[in-house]
Amino acid sequence: MLEVDPLQLMTLQMAIASAENVFLANADWDYLEVNFSGIWITQRFRSELAEGVFVATLGDRLEANIYNIWQQNQPQLTLI
Length: 80
Description:
By secondary structure, the protein is α+β, with helices and mostly antiparallel strands. It has one domain (6-72). Helix content is 31%, strand content 20%. The chain is globular. The mean pLDDT is 81.
């Protein structure tokens, strides 16, 4: 879940409009979820493991939008 300002939301909605099987859903009052399908790849015969890679086709524009919003929502680290 990522916190999105109105301008980011409009840009994200435009990017989602050109994508297949991607949609926004309300997570709670302040947050939206970006839902999309893909495949979870993990070690053979060990699908219960949490370690793996999630692979999905989003397109460059949508992936960049989601990544930029995620980056802006990460806590800022300060070095002492």
